[in-house]
Design a protein that fits this description.
The chain is built from 6 helices and 4 strands, in the order E-H-E-H-H-E-H-E-H-H. It is globular, with a radius of gyration of 14 Å. By secondary structure, it is of the alpha/beta class. It has helices at residues 13-25, 50-58, 75-78, 87-96, 108-111, 128-152; strands at 2-7, 33-38, 81-84, 104-107. Helix 1 (13-25) crosses helix 6 (128-152) and helix 2 (50-58) packs across helix 6 (128-152). The structure holds 4-nitrophenyl phosphate (4NP). 4-nitrophenyl phosphate binds at residues 7-13, 38, 42, 122, 124.
């Protein structure tokens, strides 16, 4: 199972989700591969936003080594599940999806069982309070996402 978490810049929401999901999953066999990417190229090669690094570290998760990248056409062939952080990202991914792609595209929070259309708000223009809320929402949803992933690969 290959899962790509997608947000806009790949410096706030999706690297937080990548760090949290990897931390919760640990090493499982068969492996569940978690990666993240952004729709825009603006922050490619950058570490996560310093506020995202700070909030994750307060909760014991180190995301400082992650580097932003932009989603590619190949990602639609490589990943079988893409989780979009908000509806706008979801619509863009649907628009980019090609015929050959087998990737299933879902909203991150919907995959976790939240009501249809639920979004992880973008904290980029906010302050630490928004980053804390963002982190806690992702952390809570990730409990359910990990459970569902383990079930889908037959581990639970
Ligand atoms: P993210 O947050 O999509 O959660 O990484 C953002 C990061 C950068 C920008 C917007 C949102 N930006 O416009 O540069």
């Amino acid at each position: 199972m290959h899962v790509l978490i997608v947000c806009l810049g790949n410096i706030c929401r999706s690297p937080i989700a990548e760090g949290v999901l990897k931390d919760k999953l640990g090493n499982v066999s068969p492996p569940i591969v978690i990666d993240s990417a952004g729709l825009i190229s603006y922050h490619v090669g950058e570490a996560p936003d310093h506020r995202a690094i700070e909030i994750a570290s307060r909760y014991g998760i180190d995301i400082s080594g992650l580097r932003a990248r932009q989603i590619t056409r190949d990602d639609f062939l490589k990943f079988n599940l893409m989780l979009a952080m908000d509806r706008s990202i979801y619509e863009d991914l649907k628009g980019m999806q090609q015929k050959l792609s087998k990737a299933s595209i879902e909203l991150f929070l919907e995959y976790a069982g939240y009501p249809p259309g639920s979004e992880v708000p973008d904290p980029y223009y906010g302050n630490m309070k928004q980053f804390d809320e963002c982190f806690r929402l992702i952390q809570e949803a990730s409990e359910k996402i990990v459970k569902r992933m383990l079930e889908s690969v037959g581990l639970k």
